[in-house]
Design goal:
Elements (H helix, E strand, L loop, with lengths): L9 H5 L4 H4 L3 H26 L3 H10 L4 H18 L4 H23 L9 H19 L12
Length: about 150
């Protein structure tokens, strides 16, 4: 409610639903779009190697003692995460799932596999770190869209 021409009421000052405060600016929308695409593309790219039983993928999961169930199961989880993360309404769920799956990969690299696997120069570990960082950023940007707890942020 306005008290006069150009005046702002206390309701307007303290209302949290003022459009310019809750909307993402144009550059933030573009950033959010690319941040969703990066982990989705990396996760989708690795699916071919997991589902085709590529030698490096089989070696990794044999070392972990999870071949073939772990390879196929993590591939399915990554596929679901990649799909969810590109859909704006479910990006928070995809980012959460991607963080969970990729955290397991990072811990495996740091404990059992080593950063370099079969002479790849740490490329797989680097991709895992990129997925982790970008998924965390997506989850942070989408935190208000999380059902039940999102309104607290």
């Amino acid at each position: 409610m306005r008290f006069g021409r150009g005046c702002i009421s206390t309701y307007d000052l303290f209302n949290l639903s003022i459009p310019h405060l809750t909307r993402l600016y144009h550059y933030e929308k573009i950033l959010a779009h690319y941040l969703r695409l990066i982990p989705a593309l990396i996760l989708a790219q690795t699916l071919y190697f997991k589902f085709s039983a590529a030698s490096k993928s089989v070696y990794i999961f044999e070392t972990l003692g999870l071949e073939p169930v772990g390879r196929i199961g993590s591939g399915i989880a990554e596929l679901i995460a990649a799909i969810l993360i590109v859909i704006p309404k479910t990006a928070w769920a995809g980012a959460t799932l991607a963080l969970g799956v990729i955290s397991g990969a990072i811990v495996s690299h740091l404990t059992l596999l080593g950063i370099e696997v079969q002479g790849d120069g740490g490329y797989l570990f680097f991709l895992a770190m990129v997925v982790f960082v970008t998924s965390a950023a997506v989850l942070w940007m989408e935190r208000k869209n999380i059902p039940v707890i999102g309104f607290r942020f």
